[in-house]
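Hey all, sorry for the wall of text incoming. These are the three entities for the joint prediction.
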Amino acid sequence: MSVTTVSSNADQIFVLLRDWLVSFLPSALRPAAGVLLSVVAIVCVFPGLFALTTVFERKGLGRIQNRLGPNRVGPFGFFQPIADGIKSLTKEDIVPLSANAVVHFLAPLILVVTVFMGFAVLPMGRHMVLVDMDAGLLFFFAMGAATELSVFMAGWSSRNKYSLLGAMRAVAQMISYEVVLLLSAVSVVMITGSLSLPDIVDAQNSYTGIFPHWYIFTPWGLAAFIMFAIAATAETNRSPFDLPEGESELVAGYHTEYSGFKFALFFLGEYLAMFSISGLGTTLFLGGWSAPLSVLNFVPSWIWFFGKVMVSIFVFIWMRGTLPRLRQDQLMNFAWKFVLPFTLLNLMVTALWRFMGQGWLRWVVCSAILAFAYILMGRLGLHRKHIGPRSYRYAE
Amino acid sequence: MTLFPSPLVGYLLVAALLFAIGLAGALVRRNAIMVLIGIELMLNAANLNLIAFWRFGPRPEALTGMMFAIFSIAVAAAEAAVGLGLVISIHRHTGTTDLEKMNRMKG
Amino acid sequence: MNPVFYLLAALTLGGGLAAILLKHLIHAALALTVAFAGLALLFLQLDAQFAGFAQILVYIGAVAILVVFAILLTHSDLPKEGVFSRTWLAGLAIAAAVFAVLGWAVLASIDDIPQQNTTPLATVHDIGNALVGRYVLPLEIVALLLTAATIGAVIVAMHEKERPR
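and here's what came out:
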């Protein structure tokens, strides 16, 4: 067995495993059983990653804030998710008396179901996508839009002023940043010419020398990736955009009245949304499952995909520990007055990129336009704010 | 009516029933927002009709039905936005959204 | 006719009926969302993938949320006076008459209905080509309409400045 066959077997190991398991069944049942096995794999792997991420987050935030995170349960606190899971499952499920029982029950379910559906179109490795849909990206965004409704249902059904306020803020924020998310993804679609996610990864899978053709290494791709990252943080209600669920602001926002397993479902839904949108970001901009340098192609593709997703999660955790929270009006101002015009300009720059043809000229022109626009908008934004040097007042 | 001669008949009947339900909602309810909900149901029924005819019609590769439905979705969203903005503005002016109370030109 | 169609049709019609009959407006709006979801699944059943996903994205993701926000901002959750207007019988009769006419038209022309049973291929590529080829004028007009609707909705729903009396 040469090195290439070993590495290609390791690359396709999950596909081969699934085909082997399915071959025990009669051939009429094989496609359905294959899909069912893949669904079971996704439903087991991603909540497992969620459990790991909760520990990473608490330890990571702890180290950023100059304290140890949880370190009692297991070596370095790594069995903490098991303790958290047991706690969530055994807590009493309290439903307020005046709450709308049916809607209160359905909200976390719909959240988790729509977030899981988003995983169906992500290509997690070579030939490892659950459904290769022609309009895969549109399906992903449709599932994201359906998530907003469940957030509102959760907040309204609790009959609690804090929950309703938190839900309305969350929905307003999600709607504003949904436009930015969609428009930054549209620039990728413009260059690739297809809405199907495996096609987008294939378009980024080529190398000049050893450097990859990922879209993040182009000027419009970098701008679109930064705006996608900002919009993704806002869509999943993470810091610095976590006003709807900030503990010091609104008790717990739209999941105030949830306890026990339903709260765990909301938590799961939020982290899974983070995974799924990081997966989309890596597929669109970071080349999906392709290796960063062409010499590293022997490493299996699914390791690259999950590695990039975990790096994105690490950046999310880093931002949470470092940046202060944005106020609601600052957040909406930022979306509509800064990020959205910049996204529209980026669309035009992408079109210019495509029609300028190959060569160094398009790099210079596109980078110059984007840098100039960024500096101009920054200057205009600071125009009427008299921001001087910081001054402190200490208690006497 | 369990076996239609063509599946198209089933879709057309569902669309017609949904349209009638939407029309009943728009004519029977008292609240202005319920009228808008009825209108949305009617638009959706028309969309279902369009897509059903595109699928079972003579020239589906011309994509006429699908295009018409997509434009109809866009226009319906715009109309819902303006209509609901109007309802909010009326509520601010008269304090009510009850259509039975808004039956005078004065005020 | 496969059973999935009957299930989806029942879901859609049930959602529509609940949307117009429920007393509490937010329940009605959520039933409307169920009707939208049923319709999106019916579109997918008809091999119209793009239209189905656009239906979920636009109707469930935007119009349903708009309706719910409007209900909350006008404080009309639970109507204090009656639910149905005084002329409800006339409205119901008109709706029933419309359904009777439409149903008769469909059933009377059963023999003339075209029978296209091969699955049409409507890839996103074809839709894109059609949008900038044959349907470019409607596309531009819809863009203008959406801009006008956005500006109009903001102006209509804005707080007016207090004019000195």
